[in-house]
Design goal:
By secondary structure, the chain is of the alpha/beta class. The chain has 5 helices and 5 strands. It folds into 2 domains: 4-20 and 250-290; 32-249, Pyruvate Kinase, Chain: A, domain 1 (3-Layer(aba) Sandwich). 57% of the residues lie in helices and 14% in strands.
């Protein structure tokens, strides 16, 4: 039979854990609300700037801008993997890395840029090629310009034939799904639409507008913003997913700690009752022996 002191200590530990996880749940909930609003606002903008870029690209010869080229066919694939710096987020990162394994094999022609220490550890431990890590600069949004510069330089030099962004897309507080988005080369038909979007972009949005100074110049100015915005939108989605997953994970941990505390309390009371019963029986037996 377990000692009363040991069980009392375990009850206290479970209660302390519940207090800590409850506090972490509340912190994650407050951060999730802000991150969710930012992700939802930026999602609509990201889709619209994508649609504008695609429509203008349709009116332009691919040779007019090197970023519109189909890339070097013999080049490598660059993956920008956005994960979290911290754990305690349930299976968020695990599910993301499982999809990476499914989408891309361990090929030397696939290179990675990580934003998030969990992603960096995954890339290194799985034997993949890590060319850069941007996990130290917080918030992650500050990494958008250097990451964009890196991928644009590699694409224009012919090092990379295509560039993908992989992240956790925020659906709601209970659902986050791994998502893969190709940002280069630009797909002028289809491409990286948000989930639930129509099969084809509304045609000729700018048909009734005069574009000055020219479509080519407007598109050249728009393309860098398009690339930065796609990465920025993925970071917003990833951060909203992280806080949501952590909130749910901490809620589950709090409930489990309270359940354990309740079960241990029942065991503790049972042992105390048994001990009291034995003491009463000993007292009665001793008195009867004296009589």
């Amino acid at each position: 039979m377990a000692s009363i002191k040991i069980i009392r200590r375990r009850i206290k530990s479970a209660q302390n854990i519940a207090q800590i996880t409850k506090a972490m749940e509340m912190v994650a909930a407050s951060k999730m609300k802000k991150a969710q609003e930012a992700a939802e606002k930026n999602r609509a903008y990201a889709q619209k700037i994508y649609e504008a870029t695609v429509e203008l690209a349709k009116k332009t010869d691919r040779k007019s801008n090197p970023l519109l080229s189909l890339g070097n066919p013999s080049g490598k694939t660059l993956i920008i993997l956005i994960s979290t710096n911290k754990g305690l987020a349930g299976g968020l990162n695990t599910n993301l890395f499982r999809e990476v394994d499914r989408w891309f094999t361990k090929d030397k022609n696939v290179e990675f840029v990580s934003i998030g220490k969990k992603g960096q550890n995954f890339i290194v431990k799985s034997g993949r090629v890590l060319v850069a890590d941007f996990s130290d600069k917080i918030p992650f949004l500050e990494n958008v310009p250097p990451v964009t510069q890196l991928l644009v330089g590699g694409f224009l030099q012919g090092t990379y034939k295509e560039v993908y962004v992989i992240y956790n897309a925020f659906m709601n507080a209970l659902k986050q799904i791994p998502d893969k988005k190709q940002i280069l080369p630009l797909e002028t038909f289809g491409g990286n639409k948000t989930e639930g979007a129509d099969e084809k972009i509304e045609e000729e949005k700018f048909a009734n507008f005069t574009i000055e100074p020219s479509v080519e110049e407007v598109l050249s100015a728009l393309l860098p913003h398009y690339l930065e915005n796609q990465i920025r939108a993925a970071i917003y989605e990833s951060e909203a997913s992280e806080h949501s997953a952590r909130m749910i994970a901490m809620k589950n941990a709090t409930d489990a700690a309270f359940d354990l505390s309740h079960q241990l309390t029942l065991v503790y009371n049972k042992i105390r009752q048994e001990k009291i019963t034995y003491e009463i029986a000993d007292t009665v037996t001793a008195r009867m022996a004296l009589e």
